[in-house]
Amino acid sequence: xxxxxxxxxxxxxxxxxxxxxxxxxxxxxxxxxxxxxxxxxxxxxxxxxxxxxxxxxxxxxxxxxxxxxxxxxxxxxxxxxxxxxxxxxxxxxxxxxxxxxxxxxxxxxxxxxxxxxxxxxxxxxxxxxxxxxxxxxxxxxxxxxxxxxxxxxxxxxxxxxxxxxxxxxxxxxxxxxxxxxxxxxxxxxxxxxxxxxxxxxxxxxxxxxxxxxxxxxxxxxxxxxxxxxxxxxxxxxxxxxxxxxxxxxxxxxxxxxxxxxxxxxxxxxxxxxxxxxxxxxxxxxxxxxxxxxxxxxxxxxxxxxxxxxxxxxxxxxxxxxxxxxxxxxxxxxxxxxxxxxxxxxxxxxxx
Length: 351
Known about the structure:
Distance between the termini: 118 Å
Strand content: 35-45%
Number of helices: 7
Number of domains: 3
Shape: elongated
Structural class: alpha+beta
CATH class of the largest domain: Mainly Beta
CATH topology of the largest domain: Immunoglobulin-like
Mean pLDDT: 79
Order of helices and strands: HEEEEEEEEEEEEEEEEEEHHHHHH
Helix content: 25-40%
Number of strands: 18
Largest sheet: 4 strands, antiparallel
């Protein structure tokens, strides 16, 4: 009987145990510019409770409307002999101007006194506590007039080669590093005269293009203007320009042969040598070289990349190239022959 009374007394005294839990949220800046990073700190502390007595705790993950929240730091430490703290820091980036409310966040904690952790009905003595932070608000300021992007960025551009054969593609890549309210490069387009440009599959802050042309061209500098909240100023960053050169077939050798044939003409074989010279120079012409390369091309995809730059040269050529994109193995050969004839006619007219 005395043991029974002791147990009853212990159960009755349990609710009187003083466990001090606190949970609050704070902002390091309540009036940011649009896209400016703000730190939200969540602090959970408990006093007069041993760390071993905490069975579990769960802090609600922040999810706010028109605000991007990212966990950047989390730590648990003993502040004093009787106090433990859990601290989480989130980076908040507002996506809209005006007043944005940060709804209260919830915390659930369960603990059990050391004296009851080994008893068979330990769940009887489990203490459950729910806490909630206060509602916070951000008053987001608009960016300076003429600027829509805020943050800190670095823009990087590259090409896989700067010298190619006529009709061969190059790949131009663009990458953005940093953080702010710019979430993707989808808005960026590339426009270069006398080129055909394909946009490749890309990620949010990376974009690439395949470029094909029948002449030399320059990829212009890419520029980005944004507001830097740290320097409190509008900044402009840009990339380098890239000059792409198309290689020609043996121009020096062509010139030498031309002079040789010129002297042969003077010797007296005007008709025969003129005929031979014409066909010799034609075979060494870069344009005829291009025709030979087209004839040797076996892959429909490779052939398509080579002829796309000539799409706008004639309506008939454009029609044939569009048919080529949906052709099969059976129709590819006939379409290939027709397209080569059309391009050959175009090159002869340019002479």
